[in-house]
Specification:
Number of strands: 11
Order of helices and strands: EHEHEHEHHHEHEHEEEEHEH
Number of domains: 2
CATH class of the largest domain: Alpha Beta
Distance between the termini: 52 Å
Shape: globular
Structural class: alpha/beta
CATH architecture of the largest domain: 3-Layer(aba) Sandwich
Helix content: 25-40%
Largest sheet: 6 strands, parallel
Bound molecules: guanine
Strand order of the largest sheet: 1-11-8-7-5-6
């Protein structure tokens, strides 16, 4: 029997509806949650992501401001902008879209954002809180979204083997920290694989939950997946497809058609993990507004 699909669009719509309700409550008490999105340069993919984030804010009733800076922006100019957003009490969440032009020091930018407004969860204070199991920080949106998909799919995670392929700061590392901690939709035995892992299949075949975030189409084949496993695919790569009108299509890291015959649960690409990232960004922003309101 083919795996059941995890429908990220439906689950994300549920999170957005919940956020819209919380926004309405905040507005009734005079607070309009606001996200400031900063885009430096003209990377076309980043422009698409930033536009989607802005639209999503408006759809749930939040305010948003997208600040587009030229690719020639200096480190100092960006720092000044962040200082003014940190000081602006009408702004609750700040996000600087990556990648950055080469003259910008990415880690200095992340450190400059007030941790209480760091809705991406990338500031070392929030990274540390996640590692320490403290729940008052911000969790990066994609790992938080994957945890939400597992929750919505009623996966009883306690004691399961969770194997993560990819060790990025945005997905792999925070995902490992979330799944290993003591709490709901966690308590897993976690393995993190990366480019120097000696035999990837030895690890993936043990996974009850397999999460892949690499950006290499076809990396995960059916023989690498344990029968009945939950497979969550963060990879998103555009490949040529002459059968499509556009001439291209999006694929994940997983050989979807073949793995679907082995897995128990699987996310499609697109429409799986992707929609959750923005939904969790909205949730983090409304949390930031709630916390700043009661601080
Ligand atoms: N670039 C790719 N993913 C992300 C993300 O989640 N946040 C930010 N700020 N930049 C990104």
């Amino acid at each position: 029997m083919p795996a059941e699909l995890i429908d990220g669009k439906v689950i994300a719509a549920g999170v957005r509806a919940e956020v819209a309700g919380e926004v309405a409550t905040l507005k009734a008490s005079g607070i309009v949650p606001k996200l400031a999105v900063v885009l430096v340069g003209d990377d076309p993919a980043s422009a698409v992501y930033v536009a989607a984030k802005g639209r999503a804010c408006v759809e749930v009733g939040m305010a948003e401001s997208t600040i587009r800076l030229p690719a020639t922006t200096s480190q100092g100019e960006l720092m000044q902008l962040l200082d003014s957003l940190n000081a602006d009490s009408t702004v609750h969440g700040i996000l600087v879209q990556s990648p950055f032009p080469s003259q910008i020091d990415c880690s200095a930018v992340i450190r400059r954002i007030d941790p209480a407004k760091d809705v991406d969860g990338f500031h070392p204070v929030n990274v540390g809180k996640l590692m320490a199991g403290e729940r008052d920080g911000f969790v990066p949106c994609t790992p938080a979204g994957i945890q939400e998909l597992l929750r919505a799919s009623n996966v009883a995670t306690r004691g399961l083997d969770c194997v993560i392929v990819g060790r990025s700061n945005i997905v792999g590392k925070p995902m490992a920290a979330l799944m290993v901690q003591d709490g709901p939709v966690a308590n897993c035995t976690v393995t993190v694989c990366h480019r120097y892992t000696r035999d990837l299949a030895v690890h993936t075949r043990r996974a009850d939950i397999l999460i892949t975030a690499v950006g290499r189409p076809g990396l995960i084949t059916a023989d690498m997946v344990k029968p009945g496993a939950a497979v969550l695919d963060v990879g998103i790569t555009r490949i040529p497809d002459p059968t499509r009108k556009s001439g291209t299509r999006l694929v994940g890291d997983v050989d979807f058609d073949a793995v679907r015959e082995v897995a128990g649960l699987i996310t499609p690409v697109p429409g799986g993990v992707g929609p959750m990232t923005i939904a969790m960004l909205l949730r983090n922003t409304v949390r930031a507004a709630q916390r700043l309101a009661t601080a």
